[in-house]
Every structure is written in C-alpha cells, then in structure tokens.
Hints:
Structural class: alpha+beta
Number of domains: 1
Strand content: 35-45%
CATH topology: Hypothetical Protein Pfu-838710-001
Radius of gyration: 17 Å
Amino acid sequence: MSQFEIEIKSLLGEKTNAENLKARMAELDPGHKQVSENKQLNHYFEGGDVHKLYDLVEHLYTGVEHDKFKMLAEKGTNCSVRTRQRDDEVLLVVKASIDEGTSENTVKRMEFEEPVSITLEELDDLVQQAGYKYQAKWSRDREEYEYKGVNVCIDRNAGYGYLAEFEKIVEDEAETDVVKNQLLELMQELQVEELPQERLARMFEHYNANWPDYYGTDKVFSIE
C-alpha cells in the first residue's frame, strides 16, 4: 500500500528559535516526547531511471517494502532519489510529488524510505548504475519529536542552519488536504511560519551549486 507524506518546513535559523519551539511544544502538549536524536548524511541524485533502480535494488527488499517500491516505480512521476546514513543505518529514499511542487521540495508526496543491508558507498554505487549522478551531499543533526499526533523534526543543517519539519503520513491520498491544514494550524499555535516553496527552491538551488563548501560543516547562508 502506498504512503503519502505531508510535510511543511519552517526556517528557524538561529539555535534560540529552535529552543523556543521546543519550549512551546512542552508547554502546549505535556504528553509530547522526543523519540530520536541522530546524525545524518544525505546524498541527493538527479537524472537516472527509477525503473532501472528498482531492478538493481529489488533483491535488497522483501514483502511489503518490496511491493511499496514496485508500486512507486510503476506509478510515480518526477521521482527524487537519495541515499541516507542515519547513525549506523543506511536507507534508500525515493519520493514522488503529488502536488504542484517538486519531488525534492513539496508538501504532499508519495514516499519510500527503507533500510538496506549494505554500506552507503555500495548503495550510492547501485544508484549510479541506474544512471543517476550526484546532485548534492547534505549533513545534519536531527531531533525528532511526537507532538499532538504529528512528527516534528528539528534539524541543524549544513547551509540552512536550524530548520523544523512538521510531518504526517497517511495511506489515503484523499486525506492529504485535511492533514495539511492540520499541520498549518499546529504551526500557527507554535508561532512558526511555513517556509515558502519559492524561497526554499532558491535555497536548494544555491546549496546544490555550492555544496562542497557546506557539507559536513557548520557554515550557513541566507537567501531571501
């Protein structure tokens, strides 16, 4: 069964703003909790053939995970492919847009994100065999919280600084608009604003053109 990810980003910038957001979550939802904290390497790719990628990696998956990727490869368009190392875990991530945004940066999309039993370098090699080339490499420290039934990630990203992501995953595409409105309401009560897609696209373009200057560092830039 397909899963649909609804995700809205908010640019926090400074560490103080991230701490203020965590304090407001604790005040407004005493039952909220931190569920994880990890360091990530994210490698973004462009070009390539998602069907060929499926053929190359299908042996790494069984059962539901295999079927999920097969469905996305068959039905998805404008797919975004990336690899991720989360602490010691390696994952393949494939996303396809289902709204007016791009698959890299959008609010609503189909999502496949599952671990593999090979190294990040070996997974990158399989992706490149499918015709993909590196678009950029990203690094971040992530704290993940549960807040009123929603997943909230607070990241310190190379290049971007502090960023919050408000996310919920549903299995029925018809629910995506309702969930988007729910996320926007939660963001309003937490006093954070949605990062406009146009500005996010400019930031993404700048980072991709200059990623070797930022990957693995604490450097940040500001793009309006």
